[in-house]
Amino acid sequence: MVPGHRIRWLFGGALAYPAMLDAIALARSEILLEMYIWASDTNGRRFVDAVCIKAQEGVRVRCVIDGAGSFSFSGDDVAKMRSGSRSSIPSVPGDGAGAGRSATTASS
User: Fold this and answer.
1) Largest Cα span, the chain
2) Positive or negative, the Cα torsion across 106, 31, 45, 53?
3) Over the stretch 74-102, which tens digit does the pLDDT of each residue have?
4) Which DSSP string corresponds to 36-95?
5) What is the extent of the structural domain holding 68?
6) I need a labelling partner for 99 at 20 to 30 A (CA). Which of 34, 60, 69, 73 fits?
7) Is 8 part of any domain?
8) 17 in a domain, yes or no?
9) Residue 57 domain-assigned?
10) What is the per-residue pLDDT across 27-74, written as a single tens digit (0 to 9) for each?
11) Domains: count for the chain
């Protein structure tokens, strides 16, 4: 672990999601986010909005989204992550490109 970093165990979305969203909001240079389950529900859209806002602020954002666990992640949310910034989501389930997803969102 890098000196100055800390670990806090958070079990379940009720504890983890607010802490994750706070960390995203505080990011200044880069966000690296990997999600196994990312649905297009209220919580999922909070994360989409959070990373899109940070990308528009100039923060480099990279999201890796599991294709099996996040199969219900909507095309609308994918489009939102792609729009308004330099972004790339090379493989999205249901788009004919394969099972995994990788989204890079960064300001231009």
Assistant:
1) 43
2) negative
3) 888 878 887 755 444 444 444 433 344 55
4) S---SSHHHHHHHHHHHHHHHTT-EEEEEE-TTTTTT--HHHHHHHHTTSEEE----TTT
5) 30-106
6) 60
7) no
8) no
9) yes
10) 999 988 888 888 899 999 999 999 999 989 999 888 888 878 888 888
11) 1
